[in-house]
Structures are given as C-alpha cells and as structure tokens.
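step: validate -> pass
step: tokenize input -> pass
step: predict -> running
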Amino acid sequence: MSALLNPRERELVAIGAALASNCVPCIEYHIQAARKVGLSDAEIEEAIQYADKIRRVPAAKVLEAAGCQLGKPVDEPKTEPAACCAETPTTKPCC
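step: predict -> pass
step: emit ->
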C-alpha cells in the first residue's frame, strides 16, 4: 500500500473507524497512537465528536425502522455515564 495519507491523517481515520465499530480496544490504541504522531487532545476530541455525529445518523435510522415495525416511535434510551467513569471505591474515574 502506498502511503498517500500521513501518519496523523491515518490515525484520525482509524479513530473514526474505531468509534464507528464500537471497538473499545481500538479506540484506546488509536488515541495513544494519535498522540504519538503529534495530534493534540483537542484535535483527537474533534475527530471523535465528528465521527460520533456521523455514527448517530444510521443509528437513528435503525431506531426509526424499529419503530415503524412496531407502529410507533421508539424513544432513544437515556444514557448514563460510561462504566469507566463511575466513581466507586475500587475504581478511579477515567475522565
């Protein structure tokens, strides 16, 4: 494969793909790799937010299709903080 993308661009693409595929080990790996190639946390965060925005479109369409099958809209579930961010005596928050 010829390298048309530079390492920073490749890591931004990888972060987007990791987020889209809901792969925790991938996102953990590629955030660290992105830092190693010189991306700032602000740049990484922007990539994550943009990828998530794009990821939500098909997710919303799936909910809509499910609602159509039931004959009524399906509400998006209320989300709670990620388990890694919950403060418990045995764990430290990750964020």
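step: describe -> The radius of gyration is 17 Å.
step: cleanup -> pass
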